Amino acid sequence: MCGIVGCILKNDDEVAPILFDCISKLEYRGYDSIGLATFSDGKIHIKKDKGKIEEVDKKLDLTKMDGSFGIAHVRWATHGDPSKLNSHPHVDEENTVAVVHNGIIENYLEIKEKLISEGHTFKSDTDTEVIPHLIQKFMDEGFDLEHAVRKTIGIIEGAYAIAAISVNEPDKIVATRKDSPLIVGIGKEGYYLASDSPAILKYARDIIYPERGEIVILDRNGVVVHDEFDNPINKEIDTINWTPEMAEKEGYDHFMIKEINEQAIAVRNTLTQKENIQSIIDDIDDIERICFVACGTSYHASLTGKYLIESLAGLPTDVILASEFKYSAKTLNDKTLVIFISQSGETADSLKALDVANETSKTLGIVNVAGSSITRRAQYVIQTQAGPEIGVAATKTYVAQLTAIYLLAALLAENEELLNDLEKVPDYIDDVLEEIDLIKDISKRYHFARDFFYLGRGYSYPTALEGALKLKEISYIHGEGYAAGELKHGPLALIDEGIPVVVVIPPGDNYRKTMSNLEEVKSRGARVLALGAVGDDSLKSKANDVILINSDVTEIIAPLVYIVPLQLIAYYITLEKGFDPDKPKNLAKCVTVE
């Protein structure tokens, strides 16, 4: 959940401004501190501290550091409190090796104890600090930086992406990874390392994706990659289609509202994957069961997939949280298609589950980031076309995931009517966005609440769950989503005077029963905010507030459209409470540790 960056320039220009620019673009990954290390005049120079990027920069002037190569880091505390000492980069005792690290070293305590017994002194409480000590130990034994790093990764256990520099080998950065993301960028002015592509889009769009255990060496002349046996590898170079502007706010107040407004485009672009999905279905052929594996928002998209595939194609479909997957792994066989859904393609729990599923079953990844670990490990891949998503709370990647799932379900069921309806979804989303001022005004009436409940039936149940998640993620209001039919099995006891209940009630087979649930909570004093169809006068008369959506949006495609006002409600309530929706506390965009 940390972010790392490295850069070595071909000329003698100062690298610090570039490192600072790149690492600033990784703040969405979550952070509590920032630090940079550069090299010049035979010394490693470090500036780091806890706090927001702009605050630390104002105090330390992070762009004013000598040197044409270096590394940088934004830290999310896992071992040791947020502090200057615990911030990265970390160095050995002699200040000859500097390291940045994303991940967790599981056996750091035993390594640390052994190094202390050998006379090493440690300054921080982090797991990372053992890495520069190990590297320097091996360099003292005669190994060069590359092989000292290789010796080090033979000792440490856990997940990591590491970049290291040494005063003994100037003009060189050595990096490696295992189960944490790392990309290499090749640009006109230099060579780059980063945890994610938005960091370096401005400088490099030709990308190499190192695999686990490979060693990457950057110098002024280029990039060399060695496999675990020290053999040079001719890595394929991919070109990212995203532009630097796509990772900027472009006049919006926050990335989240920008990305909400980009959802019609995300759906339209992802619909272009129809032929690819059909070819996957043709190749997979004989399957008897589908199993979705996901976390968070992707889990809610998967639940929608279960409703779609079982009701349309008649295939038994399960949805398993990636963190709980190991308890179900023995149920898989060669007739099972296991679908992994992840925005980043780097989610740690999903990657572990994918490795297990590949042993017995066909695997498919639905991922937004090209070249990510899931795209390289799954047997089949559907690439959603949402573009870079910077806001921590997923919005456009969610509707893009849903679009891919809808295409998969419709093609499995050979349902031409649904395929035709999907083409209309971008226009329906644009219709909702035209009501943004109304939704903003309604949201102002609800920011006082301490608790929220969301209700939906059938296809609308996962939408209720996702609406509740969006609210709690960014506004810190307790929100819970329920299947409306479960009210009398416990949740109804929590309904009291004035408690907001959001009811997702599109026209369709579940309308009457959902309306009955609405009346139940209303009779107990709830303040009801309902999402329904234009022309639904009954709903307008019974709910306190209504957001009305095009009546042509049927129950089956409602999840793609009705989620948009729920995202907007969460966004505007968050603004009313004075919080930053792009930077929710305690959360990060890409959870790459368990």
Describe the protein's architecture and organization.
The structure is a single chain. The chain is an alpha/beta fold. The chain contains 19 helices and 24 strands. Strand 9 and strand 10 form a beta hairpin. Helix 4 crosses helix 5, helix 8 packs across helix 12 and helix 9 runs antiparallel to helix 16.
Summarize the structure.
This protein has 594 residues and is α/β, with parallel strands linked by helices.
- Beta strand count: 24
Distance separating the two termini: 10 Å
Rg over alpha carbons: 25 Å
Helix content range: 25-40%
Poorly predicted runs of 5 or more residues: none
Mean pLDDT: 93
Strand content: 15-25%
Apparent shape: globular
Total helical segments: 19
The biggest sheet, with number of strands, parallel, antiparallel or mixed sense and barrel status, is: 8 strands, antiparallel
Characteristic terms for this protein:
single chain; 594 residues; 6-stranded antiparallel β-sheet; 19 helices
Topology:
Blueprint: E1 3-9, H1 16-24, E2 33-40, E3 43-50, H2 53-60, E4 69-75, E5 90-91, E6 97-105, H3 108-117, H4 130-140, H5 145-153, E7 158-166, E8 172-178, E9 183-186, E10 190-194, E11 206-208, E12 215-219, E13 222-226, E14 238-239, H6 255-261, H7 263-270, H8 274-284, E15 289-294, H9 296-312, E16 317-321, E17 336-342, H10 348-357, E18 362-367, H11 373-377, E19 380-383, H12 396-413, H13 416-422, H14 425-433, H15 436-443, E20 451-456, H16 460-475, E21 478-483, E22 500-504, H17 511-523, E23 527-533, H18 537-542, E24 545-549, H19 558-576
Parallel strand pairs: 15-16, 15-17, 17-18, 18-19, 20-21, 20-22, 22-23, 23-24
Antiparallel strand pairs: 1-4, 1-10, 2-3, 2-4, 5-6, 6-7, 7-8, 8-12, 9-10, 9-11, 11-14, 12-13
Helix pairs in contact: 4-5, 7-12, 7-14, 8-12, 9-12, 9-16, 12-13, 14-19, 15-19, 16-19
